[in-house]
Each structure stands twice: as C-alpha cells, then as structure tokens.
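It would be a great kindness if you could assist me with a short task in structural biology. The full record is reproduced below for your convenience:
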Amino acid sequence: MFIGKLKQAVFLIIFSFSSANIFAQDTVRLNIEAAEKIFLQKNSALLAQKYNIDAQRALIIQARLYPNPNISYVRGLNKPDSLKAEQAVQIQQVILLAGKRKKQIAMAETNTLLAEDNYLDLLRTLKYTLRSDFFSIYYWQQTSRVYDEEINALKKILTAFEKEMEKGYIAKTEVMRVKAQLYSLQSEYNDLRNQINDAESEVRTVIDSLGIYIVPIIDTVKIANVDPLKYPLSTLLDSAAKNRSDLMTARHNLALSNQNYKYQKALAVPDVTLSGSYDTYGSAWPFIKIAGVSMDIPVFNRNQGNIKSSKFQIKSDEAALQSVQIQYEENVYRSLEKAITQHNLYKSLDKNFPKEMDILSKAVLDNYTKRNIGLLDFLNFYDSYKQNIVQLNNILGNLANSYENIDFMTGTDFFYK
C-alpha cells in the first residue's frame, strides 16, 4: 500500500514538473517591424516556396538542352576469330522542328513566374495574418486588463460580504448577486483569453517561435492619425492591378495556356531523325557508308485531342482572369469604404471618455463599498463600464485592421511601411 502511494506521489510530482515545462512561456515584447523581421527569416512555408522557385528555375536549364545523340555498335559473332567479322557503327540525332525547344523554354520560364507568384501570395497572406493578429492581440490584451480589475474588485467585495453575511449584516441575496456577476465576468474573461491564446498561437506559427508569449507594442498615435483618404481609390486600384499576386497568377496561367496551345500544335509536326552509319563486311561490299533521314507520318495521330483541350483551357483561364479582376476591384473599393467608416466612427468618440470612465469606476466601487449606493446601481454601472471599454477597444482594433486590409487588398504597404 505504501509503495503504491509512493509511486502515485512520484507520478504526480513528475507530471506537475512536466506540465510546468510544457506550458512555460517566455514573455517577449515585440513591435510589428521586429515580428516581421523574424517572420521573413524563419517561416518554414516561405522557405519551402523559395526552394520551389529554385526548382522551377532549374527546369529552364533543362528545357534549353538539346536531345542527346544516339550511337550504337554492332559486331558479328559468326566469325569471332576472323578479322573480316561484320562491324557496324551507327549514330542518330533527333532534330526538333516547329520551335518545340523554344516553346518548352518559354513554358518553363512562365512556370517559374508562377512559382514566384505563389511565394508572393503566401508572403502577402502570412503578413496579413501576422499584422491583423498583432493588432487584435494588443487591443484584446487592453480589454483583458479591464476584466482583471473588475474580477479582482468583485472578489474582494465578495470576500468581505461573505464575512458580513455570516454576522447577519448583509442579506444572502446580495452576496449571491455579486457572486453571479463575478461568475459571469470570469466566463467572459475565459472566452477572451481563449481568443488571445488562439491569436498568439497563430502568430507563433507564422514567425516559427514556439514557447513564447508575445506582448505587442503598437504605435496607437500613428494609427489614430492615419487618413484613409490619403490615397485616392484610383491609386489603390492601380497598385492592386500591378502588385496583387492572385491577379499576377491569373495572368501567368493564361499566358501558360497560350504557350501550351502553341506547343501542342508544334507537337503535331513530326521531328526529324538524322542518321549515319559505317558498316564493314556486312554486305556485298567490304566497306559501306550510309546516311539517312526519318520522320513519323502524321496520318492518325496529329495531337488533335491535346490541341482541342489546350484551346478550352485558354477560355477557362480567360474567364478566371476576368473573375479575379472583378473581385480585386470590389475588394479594394470595399476595404477603403470600411476604413473610412471606422475612421469616422473613431473620430466621433470622446477621447477623454476612457479616462473619465476609469476614474468614475473607482469612485463607484468606493461608494458601493461604503454603502453609499445600492447593489443594483453598482452592478449596472460596472456592466456598462465593461461594455463600453470592450466596444472602444473593438473600435480601435477594427480601425487598425481596416488599414491593414487595404494594404492586403492592394498588395502594397500604403499604411504600414
């Protein structure tokens, strides 16, 4: 029995240490520039895409190579000891016609551009994820401080009231109302912490930095002073047309389809094989030199199916490009519209409101502790105070992310350079 309990105790100790190590995290304060620098240096997905670009570039080298010549040697075995045994040497060289080699090189070059597009699109997406999470974490952390203060204050009140209730000075219903409010705040706070932790996890994944807890440093003054109308819509649209990676991908896909169509038509033209041979004692003449040329006759297979398929692929990619063009224009317009709305909402707020509410909340807490105001007024004020701070931080977070959304939709760092 004693040994069993000892083993259980040792297991609990080991588990407690291992759990502490698993969940132990270093707190790191980072601004957005430092986070992006780490991201560009360490992100595994970006490194994989870079290697893919190199792999596609190597295929350009391969496409430039000519077909190897073929050489064969034959010796007769019917007179192995005779110097007059038949010996033949033949060499063949395939000559590509209809510009097949140039067309293959062009397709390899376009595939490299597509690999670069994929890299830029991944970079754009991950950068947007990093920045938007960064802003969200910052303002959620500001909100969490309000919850911390309210929860700690209610805990102190609840502890004092429970002692007063035991003495009969306070009704149990009042204690239960405070306790219910505390539990409600703790539940909301837990949901908020889960949001923060999910965003923290995503940021750690993007910058490949496990085992840290990030405290973002944000230049809130800079965000507050940004003018969403600094750049006209036409400028944003022009930038998106030049820099959006999904638009470049659609263009390069269409170019590749056109190149493939030309290549498939070229494949309908047979290649020529040139040959030359030298034969000794293999015919009526002791020495014979032969030159030849051969090619397939395109009677049955003229690559009709592939040519027809490549023509339909062009139409498909044309429609896809048109879809992306319509989408990017609407995306840019809507992102600018959102930024203007968020900016106007922020400008309409009273900038002294948070400080005044903070001062008032402390006064209300003090007055309730002294029993100068009733429970209902106290709980209503605290709930209103919390809701207003949460909404304010949501407005500020949405404002910051609205500018980042313009950068994402245009593929250009207009507001966060």
In short: The chain has two domains: 68-95+269-302, 98-268+304-410. The first strand starts at residue 26 and ends at 31.
